[in-house]
Amino acid sequence: MSLGDAALQAKLTVIDFTATWCGPCRAIAPMFEALSKEIDDVVFVKCDVDEAPGIAQRFSVSAMPTFVFVKAGAVVDRLQGANPQRLRELIEEHM
C-alpha cells in the first residue's frame, strides 16, 4: 500500500517521518514497529524525509521524528519528538 493510499483509508493511519541520521528516530523505531504488530485497526507507515522530501514538505514536517495522524484523508493530530507514551495515547485517542 502506498503512502497516498494509506492516508485515504477510513481507519487511522500513523505516518512516522524519520531519517537514518536521526538518533531519536532510531530510539523510537522498535516501539513503532511493536505497535504496528500489536494494533490491527491502525495503518502504520514510515517515511524517510531524505528519500521523500516532497511528502515531508506536504505534511509540514520540520523535525524528526514527527508522527502525523491521518484519518479519511485529513490530518487529525501530530506529535513531534520521540515520546512513546504520548504516541500510544494519541493512537488510542484517534482509533
TrEMBL record:
* Keyword entries, A-Z: Disulfide bond, Redox-active center
- Which cysteine pairs are joined by S-S bonds? 22-25
Give site residues, Contributes to redox potential value.
23-24
Q: Which Pfam families match?
A: Thioredoxin
Coiled-coil features, chain-numbered ranges: none
Where, by residue number, is the active site?
Answer: 22 (nucleophile), 25 (nucleophile)
| All copies of domain Thioredoxin, residue ranges | 1-95
What molecular functions are annotated in GO for this chain? protein-disulfide reductase activity
UniProt xrefs under InterPro entries? Thioredoxin (IPR005746), Thioredoxin-like_sf (IPR036249), Thioredoxin_CS (IPR017937), Thioredoxin_domain (IPR013766)
- Protein source organism: Cylindrotheca closterium
Site description Deprotonates C-terminal active site Cys, residues in chain: 16
Protein name per Swiss-Prot or TrEMBL: Thioredoxin domain-containing protein
